[in-house]
Amino acid sequence: MVIEPNASLDWSLTVVTNEDKRPRTLPLRRFALPWTADAAEATNSMEVKPIAELAGGNWGLGRRVFHSEAASCFKCHAINGAGPSLGPDLSNLVHRDYASVLRDIRHPSRAINPDFLGQVILLKDGKTLTGVVQTRDGELYVGDALGKVTRVPRHEIEAIKASDVSVMPTGIDEKLSAEQFRDLMTFLLTSPPHMPLDSPLQAPPLRTQAEVAEVLAGTQPLPADLKKLRIVLVAGSKDHGPGEHDYPAWQLQWGQLLAAAEQVQVEAAWDFPNPEQLNSADVLVFFQKGDWNDERQRQMDAYFERGGGGVYIHWAVNGNDRVADFSKRIGLASKGGSISFRHGPLALQVHNTDHPIMRNIEPLQLYDESYWRLTGETEDVTLFASSMEDGAPQPQLWAYERSAGRVFVSIPGHYNWTFDDPIFRTILLRGIAWTAHEPVDRFNDLVPLGARMSK
Predict the structure, then answer these.
(1) Closest by alpha carbon to 85, among 133, 120, 122?
(2) Distance in angstroms (rounded) separating the CA atoms of residues 436 and 443
(3) In terms of C-beta density within 10 A (0-12 exposed, 13-18 middle, 19 or more buried), how is residue 312 classed?
(4) Rounded to 5 degrees, what are φ and ψ at 91?
(5) Within 13 Å and on the Cβ side, how many CA atoms surround 274?
(6) Roughly how many angstroms between the first and final C-alpha of the chain, as a whole number?
(7) CA of 216: how far to CAs of 58, 130, 290, 385, in Å?
(8) What is the pLDDT of residues 98-128, one digit of tens each?
(9) What is the pTM (predicted TM-score) of this model?
């Protein structure tokens, strides 16, 4: 072809697929632009700005809306590596803006993902099916707007034609309250709960999916009717440097993580639960600088007497001058200034693997802080894990029973990254469930959410 000098050029580029012969533009994501920053570099340097419309939204509650019959998103869409493939995977929505996602929800036919165009299938018996057509092992399957998938033998098909209307139904936002929709958008547009990695130290290596699968193996089915649990997360003022003892961040992130579990109500308390929480909570989870006095002792004795559960993490075991009394409520306790401690690699020797909390837990390597020279009698606790300190094994994880109540204690928890370790999460979530007299596998679905795991 010869192009004349000064001639104007008019050209276009379109693509088609085997499923749909209509010409479409080539997505910009298919192009590598040499003058732009590397994707990883751009992600690391990008400041995450809060979205005003999501103020007050709860990621965990939004996840429950996503999996509810009212929204029904879970029937067609995968997100964060889990779910069906009848609609686009929504994991990339965290990189989108609020307005564009809102538009897609309210007007699903305005911009249809070309890989999920609806098709109208006319059958030889006169019936009609509408949905997304997929091919699996040479067979055709049609997924409709309700998430129902129907296998259609090819010899029964009279004709297939593309639909101009999205399979996704309209009006989803109208079925939800304003709070539910805000929570749903929070779930879609923000990352799963995780602790800030702002420590000057290098974080430990990621766990593999295989490691986590081994720990979760043998999960027992949960009852159809789950008991509603009321969990109170008790935090306090941060008292260490970056990435350490971040009680407020933990209360926020784990509050949203636990809210993702069915039949769970999560509340927050500062320093100590209020009387109403003490009267109604199923589990109190303490992560702050602990303290003990006559009034707290009286209230916690009544709480344990009625069968309440207590979980104490790291410095929450501090009892100050009342350490002896405190140890009689949680098994072992510390007195600030009189214990020994060490930061660094923590090799935990596991005990009592027949206990449900420690099922499938092998010797565990963490990078955290150990305590020893605690007050109390080791033989009074159910020891789960110990570390070698000063040439002797020292308790680091244990359970204890007080009156009708149950207690689970974890000394690890100094560094933020420990809470995002999926194996530590498993142990802690099992401990919470156990203290509530619930099946220890109740919170298994929460283990990978935002956890530090390799893909």
Answers:
(1) 133
(2) 12
(3) buried
(4) -60, -25
(5) 5
(6) 49
(7) 27, 39, 31, 18
(8) 999 999 999 888 877 777 777 888 888 888 8
(9) 0.85
